Amino acid sequence: MASHAFTSDDRPTILIVDDDADMRLYLRSCLNGTHVVEAADGVEALHVARAVRPSLVLSDVTMPHLDGVALRRALRADPDLWDVPVVLISGHPEAASPCADGFLAKPFNARDLWDAVHLFLSA
Asked: pTM of this prediction?
């Protein structure tokens, strides 16, 4: 397995992908203590992921231009990013996709988010 991005102080890099700026802010605040990068949609997320090779991607399912499921497919098709885990986030439980590595249903609290993040970062 390829190595994942860590900052100089060994913090994992988490890519937050959501078209809602308030949700990105909330996720960032919940993930205090990690290195967070952001993207407003799946297209931007692919560019960011290629630049920083995140340890984990937290992505909303429903976004313009490239949704969370299509983003995960695009990451899996990239030979440098195929193994980056993707946790999809949605307010619609039926949006849970078997193609996702993990799923977080809205509404969730900071503890739920940390549990999902730690599951993948400790693997």
From this structure: 0.88
